[in-house]
């Protein structure tokens, strides 16, 4: 029994369509497309559903709940903010789905309201009781015993009260400008202060430097286990201490989410770094997008807050618990319960990389492919470290998008520059929410003597490339690393990504040309093997899809498999629809947003779309084409979205070594067969979780890859 048959009611077979019928279908019709923002929201909901999946360890389920909260924050900060901006300035843009931004916002508010309510139900009714069964407690104020209360009071006196600045509201103290996503309290007061003021309201901003949860010392807990108290509970308990001589009638937590997207006019900017630094200061005080308030807050206080933030009832979310569940993620590493986490594993190492010899020698022997996190990221770091020290290495060029403040990659680049290598680094300063960190890295590299450029104005540099030039004998040899993910060692333990290392002359020459275009000026350079956005990648992908359709029309077997994080680009979707109409089997593994609508008779009944949500964040981008038996496979940095294919610098590289190609095909196949962590996209835009039949083998792609590639995977994961 197939996965599709397991996850949805088997529909009646669509009527046979003649070629004329198929040609008459307008593939531009909005009914054939799913709104990208609503699809993005569906991905976040799939993440939330992991919190209920008992195949995940308990603390990892709490992790998924926290990640959902963080994802939703960013969704409002960026996606909702963009829709509101369109309406505010009369710049409404309907997408290929035909929905007006106002309609999309209505759908978002309705779906978010239901989902956030569900999120707190999962926390309060499922996770917290199950954590309590494991002797992990989040104590309410009524549950504090006398000894704990003394310790908490001392903590308030020593750590909270010296930092807190309550703000009484009156004509000389207007409502404060509160920082994006900060924890605050609105307080109802009775009585007069020392100056005779009687306004009745005050705001308490919680100190941002303090943790949102505190673990009580073991000596205060006779029964053992882990006991936590919320910072919000402590401030609630001692709010009256902040207003001496007055009576606190009520204290209620709230949080406002703001527009956090940066607005830089590239045409008016002569110095991108300086403009970005100026803009970063205003990120915390953008336009208000959402208000979260404790559900016991009186209506008159809620109305007051909505007026202050110029928000409507639709922007309001009443919550039964902490207003920022994302901060709960802090407690997971404080709980020493390995039995409630996924077992640790040791990433594998490729057999052809001999750490006792030079990595350059290994790459010369054969191309190397790594799949992180199942295989180690260390060879990539060690390649750069060796290059930094090797006197034969003369030049290193590198792109950086998201790297990390304590990056081993950056350390190696700094060492290389100090050792006299010609080091050129293309840093994308506009990597969203990593801008400040990237500015710091840029300054550090420049101080070491590296040449730092910020890519091309108007086109984010998203390609993952490293080019090393080494003198060997009387000639120079180039070595290249290309990847689907960022040069971030931490992400390489949590995201699935391919790394490819080669000294193939044509690929190295192509990478050299791409770097020339990034750092210099001139006409578009012809590259031989790479697909290069914004110039050739979009066109070549459509050509390969159309070629598969031509094979099907000629009666040859045809198959397309694509794996990416998003699929929204209209021309690519229409090409896939045309391929489906010709009978091409199209299997898409799209983790996040997907505007393609599968299962439409005469349009997309040969297309299946699945999303894999598991222990690791799926991040590989792979494009496979059967090509009449002479199959081709590419991997790269680009998702199948307008921004990636048309407005970014991206690369996709061919996999030509037969052994590596067969390996990647097998790994794609296991994702298509996954029947435990796969969610199948339905024609109406909803997702249904795949379920194995009673006689089916249980298949988890991530577990299979762990067992196959990791040096040691511990207890087999159940995801």
Automatic annotation (TrEMBL):
Cofactor: Mg(2+)
Residue ranges of every copy of the Polyphosphate kinase N-terminal domain listed in the record: 33-138
Annotated signal sequence range: none
Residues annotated for Mg(2+) binding in this entry: 402, 432
Species: Thalassolituus maritimus
Domain of life: Bacteria
GO cellular component: polyphosphate kinase complex
Domain Polyphosphate kinase C-terminal residues, every copy: 358-521, 530-702
Keywords: ATP-binding, Kinase, Magnesium, Metal-binding, Nucleotide-binding, Phosphoprotein, Transferase
Keyword Ribosomal protein carried by entry: no
PANTHER family in the record: POLYPHOSPHATE KINASE
Listed GO biological process terms: polyphosphate biosynthetic process
Pfam families according to UniProt: PP_kinase (PF02503), PP_kinase_C (PF13090), PP_kinase_C_1 (PF17941), PP_kinase_N (PF13089)
Binding locations of ATP: 71, 495, 591, 619
Protein name according to UniProt: Polyphosphate kinase
Positions annotated as active site in the UniProt record: 462
